[in-house]
User: What shape does this take?
Amino acid sequence: MLSKLSAVPRPVLFYLASSFFMGLSNTIFDVVFNFYLAERGIDEASAGVIYAVATGVMAVAVVPLLLLGRVVSQRAILVGASVLFACPFAAMPFVTSVPAASAFLSVNLAGMLGQLSVGNSIAGAHVSPAARTRLFSGFFICYLGAGAVGSTLVSLLGGLLDTSDLRKYQFFLLLSFLSGCLLVAARVASARQAPRAAAAGTDAASRPPGERRNFVVLFVAAGCLGASIALVFRFANVLFAQIYDLPVGEVSLILGGDKIISVIGAVSAPLLVRRFSLRPSAAFFGVLACVSLLVQSLTVPLAVFTVFYMVRLLANYCLMPLLDTVAMSGFAPARRLVSISLRQSSFYLGGAVAAAVYGNLLNQGDWRAALWVSGGCALAGALAVTLVRDAEAAPPPPDAGAGAEKSGDKVVLEHA
Assistant: This one.
């Protein structure tokens, strides 16, 4: 075990550590923030507006990210993005209005986009193409494992704290900030050696065949998958409370258990790809997610609803590493930061639009329609993943030497 860990590049180990702290911060925040907003008199529809605005800003943030990438090192962008992610958590326990919550959450999610885009690009360049699905599965394992820890902390500490619900929620939001500070330290260490893709031409002749089409299909796939999973990411606690009238403690226990199932999904992804290949696996899990959501929309007992909720999460976290893999494999090395940023931006843009839709539907008590919308998006997104093709090397220019054919994924290291 130790020998295997010693073979992993140190930047990748710190990348996984920072993924853990990101998951811990986000899970603690996600479990309590809707309840905190309710204590401040902000209903589900207004919460949907907050998430829509913040996630929309996150999606647009890809533009300055790509512009900064031309003049600033990837290391500087990654560290700066981690600070933007962590600092707003310190203000979250004190927001009392929709505009303030939207503003702070916008900064937080913009920082998250920067970390996911640049962090994945740096870590992906440290491993071989064949190992990338395992790498991104490792990201989700760490992220979701931290989520299980966070949900358990909320459940246990929530029962021990002898204070008002508002004070409990404020305490947990400050814990998210503490975890965010640890994330910043891990990001600094993970970016000490930041790979920079070898130069490649920007003209049309240098693009691998089908790359433009891949950009369009990737945008659609990520957007639909982001729209589908937004129901779970932002409104799972509201769904359980609205349909079955569960208190926050019981909801936290269920949301803690779902992280275990999600980790199993992330672990399964590279194993399934090795056996069945990427695209058939993506199609299967898209159908599975859609069917699970349709069953949940029926009037079923809590146990049945929870089982299919877990199946839906299993399918989602089998799909996510596959989506991250095609975001790299379908594009030339010089444009992978663009493709990864597009994947992240579209994923959260789809989530932004869907959050507003889900918020309005749940505010009207129409939880069935929310599940139907999520199911349709899951199926469409998974099928789109199957249409992203691996990049083929573009024909070398006439004056290029024979070595040009061997450039592949060669990287140059930017030392801190």
In short: The chain is about 75% helix and 0% strand.
